[in-house]
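Dear H.,

Thanks for agreeing to be a second pair of eyes. The structure we're designing against is below in token form, covering all 529 positions.
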């Protein structure tokens, strides 16, 4: 298809889009920051916090019943709002490591990330894993050090931790003046001003020039001397912010503040608008697709069933890459080579949805679907392109799932099929047995599956142990060898939810033996959507 570029008016629409994810270790304040952004964008008028359980509030971005009950984010929420004449697409990802696969998929759909670090804990294990994925995709990263109004690590230690453990250079933008009860605000290195700390200071900010006389009002002489020493160390030992290096993912600007008390949040959002990239060009398997192209293209990065329990609906989330969506347009589904008329697309504030007339590159739109749509699918206006595939990782934990009422077997298969399309669960049907094996990335997912089956499908299921400990997807160019392998090992084979064959075993030693025996068969840990 010949490339036709959008007109100037629509180009401006693209350039005012910012699509980013918030990622962090659990309990670092990620969801609180999400709510503060919505507050700044006038989407909500009151933030619902997780902590005050007696008030029975929950965060706007945690919309599933299990999230409300447990006070954790287990599902990516998509939220859209406007701020400073820019259209923001914000994706609040699960903090809990048991739901990491959802976060990895989200990172394929964003143009930048805000990473949140708890100042009292510094860099944690989950942060390292997330940063590794973000760095692989060369996503620009902004860092926010949270909870400075509590007792924290020395900020120089935190900066050193980021550089050593996350393998990225720091460019501090502001520095904290004290911490915990002695936290007085932040010093901006670039304009030599102090932003005075005040609880819930979302709209009124007090800025003062950074001078010895001013500091004398709040700190002892030895503390002031230490501040000046630390500032000199930062200026000489850390990178000066360079936007080009930031966009290449080589350096991260670092901010300090307190999300709970609205301190430093607005500044970060303004810098996301100023520094983060507008929608990028995207690689397909055949060519690079420019965000300014006229014809529509986009890919599915998330599927969510039962956002509305009354209708048992399925919402497909599409990241628009090029062109624009308009009511009634025809989407060509590349994998199935079918056409679908989209009368109603929507955007979201967590569980709430709003029908829209237009959407542009960078936007996340949702469409109702009863069709065969999978994560990683591409939609166009007719061109046969496929965006680079999203990987699916092998599960790490396995259990056999069974029913209290055996007459619900078909219903169970339908429920598991929908949950597998979301990426919540993998399930496998062995060749020679009638039971079902459930595979997950994290153990907490087992509880989520049972609760969602009960609440959304009225299925009451239980688990029992299995000796399965690992699986591999199998393939081979040699069809005769593959048929021989299937006959000789049918007791260790199963179909996944897409009817592709997997090999399962109890330990790595047995896997190595079988791989040595069948060298022309590929045993893959990753499946491409």
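And this is the sequence the design step returned. I haven't edited it by hand at all.
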């Amino acid at each position: 298809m010949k490339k036709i570029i959008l007109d100037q008016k629509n180009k401006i629409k693209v350039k005012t889009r910012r699509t980013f994810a918030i990622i962090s270790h659990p309990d670092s304040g990620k969801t609180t920051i999400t709510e503060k952004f919505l507050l700044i964008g006038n989407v909500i008028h009151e933030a619902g916090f997780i902590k005050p359980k007696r008030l029975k509030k929950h965060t706007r971005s945690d919309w599933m019943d299990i999230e409300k009950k447990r006070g954790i984010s287990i599902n990516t929420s998509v939220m859209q709002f406007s701020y400073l004449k820019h259209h923001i697409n914000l994706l609040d990802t699960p903090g809990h490591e048991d739901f990491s696969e959802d976060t990895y998929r989200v990172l394929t759909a964003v143009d930048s990330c805000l990473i949140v670090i708890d100042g009292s804990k510094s860099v944690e294990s989950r942060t390292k894993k997330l940063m590794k994925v973000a760095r692989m995709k060369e996503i620009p990263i902004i860092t926010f050090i949270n909870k400075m109004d509590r007792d924290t690590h020395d900020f120089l230690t935190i900066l050193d931790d980021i550089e050593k453990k996350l393998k990225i250079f720091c460019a501090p933008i502001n520095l904290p003046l004290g911490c915990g009860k002695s936290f007085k605000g932040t010093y901006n290195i670039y304009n030599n001003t102090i932003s005075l700390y005040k609880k819930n200071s979302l709209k009124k900010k007090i800025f003062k020039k950074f001078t010895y006389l001013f500091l004398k009002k709040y700190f002892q002489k030895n503390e002031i001397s230490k501040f000046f020493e630390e500032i000199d160390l930062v200026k000489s030992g850390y990178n000066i912010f360079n936007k080009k290096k930031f966009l290449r993912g080589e350096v991260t600007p670092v901010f300090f503040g307190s999300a709970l008390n609205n301190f430093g949040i607005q500044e970060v959002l303004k810098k996301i608008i100023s520094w983060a990239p507008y929608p990028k060009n995207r690689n397909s398997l055949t060519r690079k697709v420019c965000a300014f192209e006229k014809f529509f293209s986009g890919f599915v990065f998330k599927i969510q069933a039962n956002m509305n329990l009354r209708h048992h609906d399925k919402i497909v989330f599409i990241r628009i890459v090029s062109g624009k969506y308009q009511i009634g347009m025809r989407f060509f589904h590349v994998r199935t080579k079918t056409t679908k008329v989209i009368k109603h697309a929507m955007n979201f504030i967590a569980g709430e949805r709003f029908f829209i007339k237009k959407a542009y590159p960078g936007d996340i739109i949702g469409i109702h679907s009863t069709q065969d749509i999978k994560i990683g699918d591409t939609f166009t206006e007719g061109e046969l392109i496929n965006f680079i595939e999203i990987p699916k990782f092998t599960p790490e934990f396995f259990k056999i799932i069974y029913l209290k009422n055996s007459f619900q077997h078909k219903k169970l298969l339908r429920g598991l099929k929908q949950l597998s399309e979301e990426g919540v669960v993998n399930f496998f049907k062995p060749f020679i047995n009638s039971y079902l094996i459930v595979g997950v990335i994290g153990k907490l997912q087992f509880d989520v599956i049972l609760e969602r089956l009960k609440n959304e499908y009225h299925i009451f299921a239980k688990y029992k142990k299995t000796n399965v400990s690992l699986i591999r997807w199998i393939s081979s160019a040699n069809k005769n060898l593959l048929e021989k392998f299937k006959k000789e090992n049918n007791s260790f084979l199963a179909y996944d939810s897409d009817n592709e064959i997997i090999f399962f075993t109890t330990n790595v030693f047995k896997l190595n033996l079988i791989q040595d025996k069948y060298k022309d068969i590929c045993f893959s840990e990753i499946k491409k959507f």
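Two observations from my side: Residues 391-528 form a domain with the Alpha-Beta Plaits fold (CATH 3.30.70.3280). The two ends are 24 Å apart (CA to CA).

Warmly,
E.
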